[in-house]
Write a structure and sequence with these properties.
Length: 314
């Protein structure tokens, strides 16, 4: 049984039913780290937010199920799972931290909400675990007194406070500079190992994802276009979009201009009965604009493409 299983998730705009996330299915095993990668607007955040029913105003789930340890997440068990078994870290810690409340108090509130009472030793230990210097001083400070990197550490401390089985991290390092980003990645990896937690790591940066996870999900225009282990994705990418992403990464490593896929992705709801990547694809066939390619499984790797790369090209 998978730790988490998302099946046929479709998300739409509430007002006019435009598809934003289209039939997304994936699973995460106990202790496994999974990454979702894709350009801005590809549906990464909406897919992640759907897991804990945290979709923003203006969008809603049209269909699909989310199961945690074999049980569907529904209104009855949502509060217990949220924070306790699955927790989330967002890109901007200020959206989750209360600017008017001292950090120590915010941590205690989480403990109290889960009937663990006010526990200052545990609060300080949580801050120490993410290597915050002078944890007592930190506990007595307000979020604005800290840098972005330190606030993100506080958020990670809070997210890991109740030793969740799954940590969902939605671009938690994007706003940080490279050195701080590295420290946060190391920290999350260390904490993951210490707690044997699973991770769902979301990023537009394939390089970051590759460092953090075992399995990569590539999203494009609201759909999953390829899934594979990091080794499979890098050594044997099958979908032309994945190949493009790897190309961008290699160019960036060599300090060249980053964009290697010309054009922009279409809005998911405009893609009907064809491949959403057809306009940008160098391998397009007549079939690609007449039919939607479904995700086909080949061993542990899956891809949705009528004319995939045959492998080993990178
Ligand atoms: N509250 C909302 N109302 C209407 N449309 C939305 C809303 N939130 C997101 N969308 C749209 O849904 C699509 C997917 O958004 P999502 O935030 O999941 O993308 P993303 O892959 O996380 O992008 P980014 O890398 O920019 O965070 C986008 O086209 C976006 O404009
Ligand atoms: S299905 Fe066709 S257009 Fe789409 S990625 Fe594959 S080859 Fe390119
Ligand atoms: Mg996002």
């Amino acid at each position: 049984m998978s730790l988490l299983r998302v099946s046929n998730l479709t998300v739409e705009t509430s007002l006019d039913g435009k598809t934003l996330v289209d039939d997304v299915s994936f699973s995460i095993e106990k202790g496994e780290s999974v990454g979702i990668v894709g350009e801005s607007g590809s549906g990464k955040s909406l897919s992640a937010l759907s897991i804990l029913s945290l979709l923003p105003n203006g969008v809603r789930k049209r269909s699909g199920t989310v199961e945690f340890q074999g049980q569907e997440i529904a209104a009855e068990n949502l509060q217990n799972i949220r924070g306790n078994r699955i927790s989330m870290v967002y890109q901007d810690p200020m959206t989750s931290l209360n600017p008017m409340m001292k950090i120590g108090r915010q941590i205690e509130e989480v403990l109290e909400a889960h009937d663990l009472g006010k526990d200052s030793a545990r609060t300080l230990a949580a801050l120490e675990s993410v290597r915050i210097p002078e944890p007592e001083k930190c506990a007595n400070s307000y979020p604005h007194e800290f840098s972005g990197g330190m606030r993100q550490r506080v958020m990670i401390a809070i997210a890991l406070l109740l030793k969740p089985d799954l940590l969902i991290a939605d671009e938690p390092t994007t706003a940080l500079d490279v050195t701080i980003q590295r420290q946060i990645l190391n920290l999350v990896n260390e904490q993951k190992r210490a707690n044997n937690a699973s991770i769902l790591w979301i990023s537009h940066d394939l390089g970051v994802v590759a460092e953090m996870v075992d399995k990569v999900i590539v999203m494009y225009a609201g759909r999953i276009v390829e899934v594979g282990t990091v080794a499979e994705i890098f050594e044997n990418p099958r979908h032309p979009y994945t190949v493009g992403l790897i190309g961008s990464l290699i160019k960036r490593k060599h300090q060249q201009k980053m964009i290697s896929i010309p054009g922009t992705p279409p809005k998911p709801w405009t893609v009907t009965g064809q491949c959403g990547f057809a306009d940008r694809c160098s391998r397009v066939l007549p079939n690609c604009t007449q039919q939607k390619p479904e995700l086909v499984e080949l061993g542990r790797q899956s891809f949705a493409c009528f004319n995939p790369f045959e492998g080993g090209l990178i």
